[in-house]
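User: Batch of two.

Assistant: Item 1 of 2:
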Amino acid sequence: MPRDTAVSERRFRFLVAGYAVSSYGTFLNMVALNLFVYETTGRALAMGLFMAVRLASGFVAGLVVGGLLARFSAKSIMLWANVAQGGVMLLLILAPESLVTGALMTVSVVIGACGTLFMVALRSSIPEMVGEDRRAWANSLSITGRSLAMVAGFASAGVVVSLVGYTAAFLLDMATFVICAVTVALLPIAGGKGAGTGRPGEAGKPGTAEKPGTAEKSENGGKGGPRWRPVAFLALAAAPGLGLMVALRGVDAFGSSSHNAALPIYSTSLDASNPAVFVSAFWCVWALGNIGAQQVIQRYTQRTGKTVGALGFGYGTVVMSAAFIAAFAGFPLAVTAVIALVAGAADGLTEVAYTSHLQTLPATLRGHAFGLSATFENLGFGVGMILVAAALDRFSPLSVVGWSHGAAIVVAVVFLLRVTALRRAGTTAPTERAGGAEQAGLRKEQAVEGRPDRGDRDGAEVSRG
């Protein structure tokens, strides 16, 4: 391994460690803040409003983050996103009782927006940090860190709150964001602020940086083209089928809202006296499957040099959605554990495939595409939570999860058909062009050498191939 590659990978591991620590804080505060909101207001509706504001903030951040990455470096966005989250947690800790409700809404806005800003800045700058050929490895490593943090955060939240109280939990949460901010500050991180190129496949290469706004101008076709088009949608048009891929991600988020909302209800039906046991066990097994998939993907990419690809994303979505539906079908606990393992593995596969695919875009469009993707995901999850919560009052968890994830399966099948058609067209067209060129050349040879059968025969053979 070249020395520069080893150094960049060591730095990225250090960054992932900081990211995992802050992710632990994020998942810890998802539980602690919801409990605190309910205890402070005494209303379940307040918890729903808190989550809605958080998702709406992430939605808006997804729309603007591409423009921010065109003006500021990815490092500065990641740094200040963590500083802001740590600062707002301190604000909540110091807020007097009369201002707690306002502080909670501020926390909701900042956490939702900054979480999206950090995630998009990180994912869009990975090709510059580790190189194009190490994207899948880097994505897999960051997802592994987040999965471990999710399990630790969810598992420890109840214990932390019950043992040391909300103030100590919020201080711990603030400390995780500070640690991540320090990690980012200490590392030379590329990405953003015009880093990249306007031509696919050259992101991260030296000497290909463009001035901010160059891509927008070139994509608009100069003076004769349209005067303005949103850059985020230009990013989706940069690769065939990418728009459908992002749409599938949004529908998948809609499906995710169903199993997140239905799990506590289903768990209560299994054991009303202690419903948290099944939920915790399910997510722990899910995380094991996710982490296991990341290890397999890392070894696969190291051995073959290939990435999972768009087809892996489509097939993984089908398997993941089918597994989540099966998890609510009432199978024995041992079978359900296997299903949760499969769901986690498929979820890990889809995330690596999806992230790696978007990272193949030119750097000038990549941030916009990731931002629009985050917007679709927040929209799908937010709308899903509203519809699913209403549906669970009338229908069983299996029914609700079935039609929610069923919609994801339908869109995934359409996506797979589209990708397969594009691949067939892509392999047929170059072959036909090669056959035509060879046939023309051999016909010329036929006129010189006087062998009238040679050109037609060879040309036909090439065309059939």
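Item 2 of 2:
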Amino acid sequence: MSKPVINIADIELQPRPPAYAATGPAAERYDARTGMVGMMLGAQKLGYNITAVPPGKRAFPFHSHQSNEEMIFVLEGAGEIRIGEAVYPIRQGDFVACIAGGKDTAHQVTNTGTAELKYLAVSTRISSEICEYPTTGKFAVFAEVPADKNGKPGFFRFVGRAEQSADYWEGE
């Protein structure tokens, strides 16, 4: 087991891995650095990270979770969170509940301030997870899968649209 204690001052925030970095026109609207605290501590049933969003940027696309619930605690800065059709200002010291559900529970954090917005995100870690993106009509499936022969944890991700679905018996 990893050491079960880490100080926030010791968490190095990293740019997103290439598979999750915004590209093209999306890079103008999205940017964030994260520190995967839960992984560092060996957490099993909760995921937690520190996310830092530059001024004028969004951390992630507007999305909802079908299985997992999130909580956001604003550590520094100010911005807004959209939940469903409502938009709420957020600032240092605010807690936000992002419950599982459909488009009415979809959420997105935007830094509307002039300084970096930094928050702690805590969520359940139910796998498999389906996220929906109401603005674009996309969905994503995420799942932890067994480790490979070298012990490296496995992960499955698929992003698509319902109309791309193949027939269950196609090619059988």
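The mean pLDDT is 94.
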